[in-house]
Write a sequence for this structure.
């Protein structure tokens, strides 16, 4: 096989890093033959229709090697000009330092934080099996693609990769292929200093097939392994021994990983690889070589389109469903369903309200799937009668993620990025800590993943300080692009679910273990605005703000104060960030600027509330760890009492 | 072997859960023979001197099984009365729902968040090897103990456990023994639904020895395995097949995991196990059985004490060092060293300042050890000339954690809890997300672990949004008990390090990639108070607050405003939480209550700052994701400019 193409990819990657004077030349040099074999010669995708639903998915889990991805996408015909490549890592470019989710440009998911790409790929592979099981018919394999992840040692050292690999093995995701760029180098030196494990054996232990490639620098061998992987009934790891910084004076050295080579080493590399020493000077023959490959892939996609047209005729009802699977539901449609909002009892934990709302929604939305990190019975996230997803039942809608929070979130990102499904996942709020970065990635990519975090405070009770969240709400609320709802009752819980499923953002639902009071006059419009008056009194002297379980305290305090002739307003704040985005008039109406006697109540860190109560108000919260005791006692010991709220208000007026 | 003891442990554990009407009966019933064999018959420890430095360490990684731990510690003679056991999971008791760090009570580390215990144990085993290498002399094995971790399926599914196991294998920690309570049940059902991996093979892949026990319910077999483990030159996994809920009608059922049995099932269990049906009614014979075991262990400890007395005579200098290893350095001693504070250049990144301070401190403090999650060269946390810790060099002081942030933090917790060492670890600030819960555990336990988080903002530059922290500072600052420093220059960086090493808390140092200005009049006293005036003007009309890299902006804006006749104060805020704990007078002095024209500047989420700027101030920050571009351009594009600050101040006055 002509080496010109591979070496051109190498030269281009290094030119990009040099031009940016920033980036990672080492991995692209080592991985070039792999990426070329996989994405130019082997996989199914088509730059003329980048969002083709049955395309193979590519996840560059080792996101720092982005230069090779952009280079190969350029030759594959995606919308990257040489000028785009020159703009690598600069303001406003299409070619940021780490790949940023944009399927129209061939980037299936944002990567960079190591290990997550493998879990993303597992999610994409799960989505493929679910959609295939639902939509394929004999002779019409409308969903039939593979998912490829490229990873290095860093990804494989991260715990999330093991979590994802273990689940993928259990689920026998045979169309998932992970390609391991085995270069034996990490930033601090040889992998021997910290990573001596037997990687093939590890994958076998997890139920994977392992295909070793003798020389990862040989495109032909890589191609043969990719073909062999297609015959596997297990997920496959292809181990490709490579040389970081291949062809350069820094070959095999940690120093080649993350800094530009500089002129001298670059020129030497170009000479070694028989390339022009002019930056970005691409030999026309390389374009000639890739053109027929690109056309072949395009033809394959067109064949699929023809099949889909026949399928459309043969199964019009299925295609209607297919279309609905590929759209989010509409807010106005869901709002019409009064059953969603109606509480069945005066007192109910919001996790239970959520469970009921979720099950009602799941009946309406056949593409709503999800699960828990082994806490389904506690999170109330099981879909009744909708089966467990497994290697034997790809139609099951309940996912069992195991005790793997981080992988769970990243798998959901992969499923959401794949398209065709609405996904949610759940655990205790305190364990949002275990998955935080993947939640951040959902928010960053604006993927509509719904996180159900129950057991939202010291209301956890006897399990004690390790299980009682304090600062987690603050962490989530300060995460850009994440909507965080802490609903006070069934109605607000239903609104939160509806917003989560119809919005273009990731959403976290923060839910109680203990019962909440369903008898307050909460309302939909207010909930969607993030905060609103639940109790308004003429000539109020103060305002009490509360979320979730603490709305009850606020309402009770208002009564007691009223009996004493002190009038206060009560504001329910289900979604603080949303409220802050309302127009001035609305905010002024709910929280008049001159009404400075403000008390907030929330069983969590006080930090988020000073934005609303300011320097003159009081924030009742908990800025220390909890304890192991009955929840009611904890609320009382830690000052979440009507008396304390009343006293706080009085101290202000 | 008499089964009375083991069954009594079982009965007691179930009685505790029944009395509390809350807790986890299933695991204690299955694990009782293992815990009895290990902690009553096999391991070296002594309730009459619980903090004996050479005791074996026990980590109940499956912390929800706490009832069995308290039961066994009761019989081993630790300070738990039957009344303490009855007070299980109640307010103020010694027996919280999950074990809480208290070596005086035989609890070596707080557990509950799954998987972390295994990493804690790895840390303890590392500490043992380091201290042994340093202090043991022929004939005087003063440090020579084992570390045991008990874990279940949940722990083994968590990514952190793989990370820790992989590193332990690489490091050949042969005195580490993990005992796997293999009961094939998780909360959602059989482990088959999510966890089919071959656990023994997985550990072998990671370089461990695996000892299978045929029947984990047979104390004799468990004992034999524990003895065999002592001959290993690799870390050892003992696989014990057990039955969750053993002896009860819920044996083998997920339902036995996390809820009380109720009267009927409990009485039936008691009958099956031949126990009194009166709760907490302990047969005297059981105490008779354990008494000689406890005395044997006490005798072993006394033998060690005798050896240590001889060692003291033979190696007085070593014992002096030993004593210093087991104490934290004193604040006043470190403050005397002017070199720590003196900047070597006018402009220096705080990560570089930190690297210099750290290296100076490491020369003074021979028990200061630490490392990075494969970012040492970027975090500037390498100790020059102090060697790499490895299986061949236990005296090396640089730890190579690999790309394993979560395990790194939990390993540091284990090392700190072990005692004898001062530990730090490091990664990029954005990846604090990967390790958050373990950082929380440091803070909760008040372990003096130092976290070095560099690349603290959009100052990261070209690596882009995935690598640019935004909300991480907020998450850390809202974590109770964690001190978060974002120093503005070399002096503040030195103060932060000194506070971290001399304080009784976990500390995070948030450091810049880019250069900071070392020429402002920062000061030590102010830094230790968390915030202070760096520039005070008579009749100031406004105050600008800033931390870290943004102090420069504040100082420059002050100048520009001054030239326009507008006088403002500038407050440096290296540690916001510490400032808020100062007395009213101090706070009033720095931030007079009537000076409400306040502007804060920090290249991170604005949330923490409203506590200081209130409703009438302006917080300049970044509440969205960053971008891939040159850092200077990013600061400018996102409004971190002198002009913007000047304009903000003017808009207020």
């Amino acid at each position: 096989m002509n080496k010109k193409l591979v070496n051109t990819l190498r030269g281009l990657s290094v030119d990009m890093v040099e031009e940016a004077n920033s980036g990672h030349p080492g991995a692209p040099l080592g991985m070039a033959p792999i990426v070329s074999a996989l994405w130019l010669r082997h996989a199914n995708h088509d730059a003329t229709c980048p969002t083709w639903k049955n395309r193979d998915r590519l996840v560059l889990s080792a996101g720092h090697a982005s230069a090779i991805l952009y280079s190969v996408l350029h030759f594959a015909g995606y919308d990257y000009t040489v000028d785009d490549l020159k703009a690598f890592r600069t303001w406003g470019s299409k070619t940021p330092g780490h790949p940023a989710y944009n399927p129209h440009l061939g980037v299936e998911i944002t990567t960079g934080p190591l290990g997550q790409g493998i879990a993303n790929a597992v999610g994409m592979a799960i989505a493929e099996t679910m959609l295939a099981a639902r939509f394929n018919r004999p002779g019409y394999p409308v969903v039939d693609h593979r998912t490829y992840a490229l990873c290095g040692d860093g990804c494989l050292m991260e715990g999330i990769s093991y979590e994802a690999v273990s689940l993928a093995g259990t689920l026998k995701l045979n169309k998932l292929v992970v390609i391991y760029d085995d270069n034996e180098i990490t930033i601090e030196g040889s992998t021997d200093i910290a990573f001596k494990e037997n990687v093939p054996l590890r994958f076998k232990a997890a139920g994977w097939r392992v295909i070793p490639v003798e020389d990862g620098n040989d495109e032909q061998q890589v191609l043969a392994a990719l073909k062999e992987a297609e015959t596997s009934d297990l997920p496959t790891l292809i181990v490709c021994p490579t040389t970081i910084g291949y062809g350069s004076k820094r070959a095999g050295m940690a120093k080649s990983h993350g800094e530009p080579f500089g002129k001298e080493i670059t020129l030497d590399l170009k000479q070694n690889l028989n390339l022009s020493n002019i930056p970005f000077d691409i030999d026309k023959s390389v374009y000639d070589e890739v053109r027929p490959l690109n056309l072949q892939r395009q033809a394959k996609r067109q064949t699929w389109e023809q099949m889909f047209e026949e399928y459309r005729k043969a199964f019009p009802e299925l295609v209607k469903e297919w279309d609905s699977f590929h759209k989010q539901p509409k807010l106005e449609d869901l709002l019409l369903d009064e059953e969603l909002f109606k509480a069945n009892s005066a007192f109910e934990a919001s996790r239970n309200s959520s469970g009921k709302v979720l099950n009602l929604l799941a009946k309406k939305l056949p593409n709503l799937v999800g699960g828990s990190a082994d806490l389904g019975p506690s999170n109330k996230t099981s879909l009744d009668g909708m089966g467990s997803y497994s290697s034997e039942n790809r139609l099951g809608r309940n996912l069992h993620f195991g005790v793997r929070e981080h992988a769970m979130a990243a798998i959901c990102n992969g499923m959401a990025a794949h398209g065709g499904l609405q996904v949610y996942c759940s655990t205790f709020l305190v364990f949002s800590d275990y998955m935080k970065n993947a939640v951040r990635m959902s928010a960053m990519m604006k993927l509509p993943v719904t996180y159900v975090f129950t057991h939202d405070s010291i209301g956890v009770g006897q399990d004690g300080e390790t299980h009682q969240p304090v600062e987690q709400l603050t962490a989530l609320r300060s995460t850009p692009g994440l909507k965080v709802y802490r609903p006070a009752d069934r109605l607000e819980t239903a609104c939160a679910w509806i917003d989560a499923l119809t919005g273009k953002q990731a959403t976290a639902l923060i839910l109680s273990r203990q019962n909440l009071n369903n008898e307050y006059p909460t309302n939909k419009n207010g909930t969607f605005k993030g905060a609103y008056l639940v109790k308004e009194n003429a000539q109020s002297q103060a305002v009490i703000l509360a979320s979730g379980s603490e709305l009850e305290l606020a309402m009770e305090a208002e009564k007691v104060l009223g009996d004493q002739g002190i009038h206060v307003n009560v504001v329910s704040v289900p979604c603080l960030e949303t409220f802050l985005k309302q127009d001035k008039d609305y905010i002024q109406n709910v929280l008049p600027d001159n009404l400075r006697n403000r008390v907030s109540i929330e069983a969590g860190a006080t930090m988020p509330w000073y934005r609303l109560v300011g320097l003159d108000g009081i924030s009742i919260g908990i800025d220390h760890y909890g304890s192991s005791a009955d929840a009611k006692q904890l609320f009382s010991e830690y000052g979440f009492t009507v008396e304390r709220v009343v006293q706080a208000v009085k101290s202000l007026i």
Observations:
- Residues 331-517 of chain A form a domain with the Rossmann fold fold (CATH 3.40.50.970).
- Residues 284-314 of chain A form the longest helix (31 residues).
- Chain A has 26 helices and 20 strands.
